[in-house]
Design goal:
190 residues; alpha/beta; seven-stranded mixed β-sheet; 35% helix; globular; binds S-adenosylmethionine
Length: 190
């Protein structure tokens, strides 16, 4: 049976490179951050860099603990700010960016990602994405804000020029409340 998580990792891995740059737009407990740090690390000569954002200090603390205890290479910058402010912190093009929308597992469900910052954050991410780079955006439509986030992201991304980027959505259509994800691949400049 097709597993969406495996598919998600497959797309991501195709765009990550040793010495490259990646952004985790929703750090949470740091599992994606850790994956990205290890994937871009090419040794001391090419450590790569991962920028990770969250608005909750608890997420930064939890991620810092995970990265330190797991011996993850120290090629990361953890940022306690909203992801729509990415351009204030990231001043280089990045190869891969991950949004895992929703709330921090095991914490206050009211602190969930919201359309008012998610949509501007995706626009900002597209601007900073390197040609040939990828964005993966996981959506949880089983709660109301998640459902609306997915609808508005669909509307926004449907308007993007196919000459500039390819946009796809991977979803089990016979399970409408299950998580799904978007991929945005920016085309190489000619
Ligand atoms: N990828 C994470 C992991 O591996 O544990 C899980 C992410 S969790 C589903 C979503 C996270 O987005 C929460 O930790 C939440 O605090 C964060 N978040 C909510 N609004 C945000 C915003 N405007 N900017 C950055 N992070 C935000």
């Amino acid at each position: 049976m097709t597993d969406l998580l495996t598919l998600h990792k497959y797309f991501l891995s195709q765009h990550l490179r040793r010495g490259g740059v990646a952004v985790d737009f929703t750090m949470g407990n740091g599992h994606d951050t850790r994956y990205l740090c290890e994937a871009v690390y090419g040794g001391e000569e090419a450590p790569g860099r991962v920028y990770a954002f969250d608005i909750q200090q608890a997420a930064l603390d939890s991620t810092a603990r995970l990265l330190s205890e797991s011996g993850t290479p120290e090629n990361y910058t953890l940022i306690c700010d909203s992801h729509d402010r990415v351009a204030d912190y990231v001043h280089e093009p990045f190869d891969a960016g991950v949004f895992n929308l929703g709330w921090l597992p095991g914490s206050d469900k009211r602190v969930t990602t919201k359309r008012s910052s998610t949509l501007p954050a995706i626009e900002a991410a597209i601007s900073l994405l390197a040609p040939g780079g990828i964005l993966l955006i996981a959506v949880y439509p089983g709660h109301e804000e998640g459902r609306l986030e997915g609808e508005e992201i669909t509307a926004m991304l449907s308007e993007k020029s196919r000459f500039r980027m390819s946009v796809g959505r991977f979803q089990f259509i016979n399970s409408p409340t299950s998580p799904y994800f978007f991929i945005v691949e920016k085309k190489e400049e000619r």
